[in-house]
Design a protein that fits this description.
Elements: H1 30-41, E1 55-57, H2 64-79, E2 84-91, H3 98-109, H4 119-133, E3 135-142, H5 145-151, H6 154-161, E4 171-177, H7 188-191, E5 198-200, H8 206-220, H9 228-240, H10 246-263, H11 270-280, H12 294-309, H13 318-332, H14 339-351, E6 356-358, E7 361-363, H15 369-381
Parallel strand pairs: 1-4, 1-5, 2-3, 3-4
Antiparallel strand pairs: 6-7
Helix pairs in contact: 1-2, 3-4, 8-9, 8-10, 9-10, 9-11, 10-11, 12-13, 12-15
The structure holds adenosine-5'-triphosphate and magnesium ion.
The site of adenosine-5'-triphosphate has 22 residues, from helix 2, helix 8 and helix 10.
Length: 382
């Protein structure tokens, strides 16, 4: 059956959630982009020998590649009248050998056959070609960590050393990596070449992810489909479970759209995010509840019931949970524990990563409240 995606997504909206789509603005990356543009503007200045290759670093999904691409577009436009600037962006996680990276570069620049040439010769040829045509190359070696580890910086050495013995700088390299400390495996001669600006990309905070998610949902979803608590939940999960990764947030957002379509819901609330999370990145191992005593199961059942009944609530206070608990224990005719006992058990569920704390309140981020509730009913009545 074909799903009627139009109720949830805008026409063409899903493409805006794709990894290949880069929005025209990147919230919370203005500073990095500006630094990068300032560093790259030197390309068109004469003498350009003052260019030092910048290095972008930070964990996954922090906007390194996207910021680089936006900055490159801007630079290309800026220098257009002054010079021919090629922009070659090599994802070194795909081109995993130095030689294939060099080949990729040469494909962009030269049309000559390259068979039989070594890496350095090939790069020299590229350089020669740029010189003959009086053109320039902005070369981004993205995700270069593994390659550095493997070739101990040979590729970096080649691309930074190429200028030596030539007059004008033609090749402007930029390096993008997760961790700049990887440079420590390279010989000093390589490290001494990478003296440019180091631009840090920190993991996004929960608050930053809120604006990133909001920007994207405006582009991709029909108006008023995604609730503001759902946005909070995505941002919380991506900051806390996903380590501040924007890609994680977008995947969760996209996934929640499918959950809504599958269940025929016109709106996306917190429970849809939990369901999407469960599919996308399951956090709670199977069987973990089988080892929990009955009185704790009843407490968790109260939490699950609370979130199940109010399916668009992001967090509960301990007080609210205690009320749910009194209700549930009464129905089950269970012995009632004190509020402190309940708080202690909640703490244990936080330690075992079933529940989380957010600004002093309790969150259930990664399991559908309904699934959890049903599982607990089964265990309690067994
Ligand atoms: N500030 C932001 N605003 C909007 N979208 C963002 C932002 N930062 C990242 N994204 C989006 O998140 C996804 C991941 O970003 P990007 O690929 O730039 O991260 P990265 O740091 O290069 O990650 P990796 O180290 O895994 O390559 C992309 O789809 C990108 O569009
Ligand atoms: Mg990247």
């Amino acid at each position: 059956m074909k799903m009627k995606t139009k109720k949830i997504f805008k026409p063409g909206g899903q493409q805006m959630l794709d990894v290949s789509y880069i929005p025209p603005q990147l919230p919370h990356r203005e500073e990095q982009i500006k630094l990068l543009i300032d560093a790259l503007t030197l390309i068109s200045e004469v003498p350009s020998e003052t260019f030092f290759p910048p290095l972008l670093y930070g964990p996954t999904g922090t906007g390194k590649t996207s910021s680089m691409k936006l900055a490159a577009e801007k630079i290309k436009k800026e220098v257009k009248r002054k010079m021919v600037l090629h922009y070659v962006h090599v994802p070194c996680s795909v081109f995993t050998k130095s030689y294939s990276v060099v080949q990729r570069i040469s494909e962009e620049i030269t049309s000559a056959p390259v068979r039989g040439l070594g890496g350095e010769e090939l790069l020299s040829m590229v350089f020669g070609e740029l010189e003959t045509r009086d053109e320039y190359l902005l070369l981004v070696l993205d995700d270069v960590d593994e390659l550095i580890k493997r070739d101990r910086g040979r590729l970096l050495f080649m691309v930074t050393r190429l200028e030596e013995g030539h007059g004008k700088r033609r090749l402007f390299p930029v390096f993008v990596m997760r961790n700049w400390r990887i440079l420590n495996v390279t010989p000093p001669a390589v490290r001494s070449k990478i003296t440019g600006l180091r631009i840090e990309f920190e993991p996004y905070t929960k608050e930053e992810l809120v604006s990133i998610v909001k920007q994207r949902l405006k582009l991709a979803f029909q108006p008023d489909v995604v609730s503001s608590n759902a946005v909070r939940q995505i941002s919380f999960n991506s900051a806390v479970l996903g380590g501040g990764d924007a890609r994680y947030a977008l995947a969760l957002l996209h996934g929640s759209g499918f959950v809504a379509l599958k269940t025929g819901s016109k709106k996306i609330g917190v429970e849809h995010i939990r369901e999407a999370q469960q599919v996308f990145d399951r956090r709670v191992p199977h069987g973990v509840l089988d080892r929990v005593d009955r009185s704790s199961l009843v407490i968790l059942m109260a939490v699950a019931k609370g979130f199940k009944d109010e399916s668009d609530v992001h967090s509960f206070s301990i007080r609210k949970i205690y009320e749910c608990y009194l209700d549930v224990s009464q129905k089950l005719e269970e012995k009632v524990g004190s509020r402190n006992e309940v708080a202690d058990k909640i703490e244990e569920f936080i330690d075992s990563s079933i529940l989380y704390r957010d600004d002093g309140r309790i969150v259930l981020p990664s399991i559908s409240a309904l699934d959890l509730y049903e599982k607990l009913v089964e265990l309690v009545y067994k």
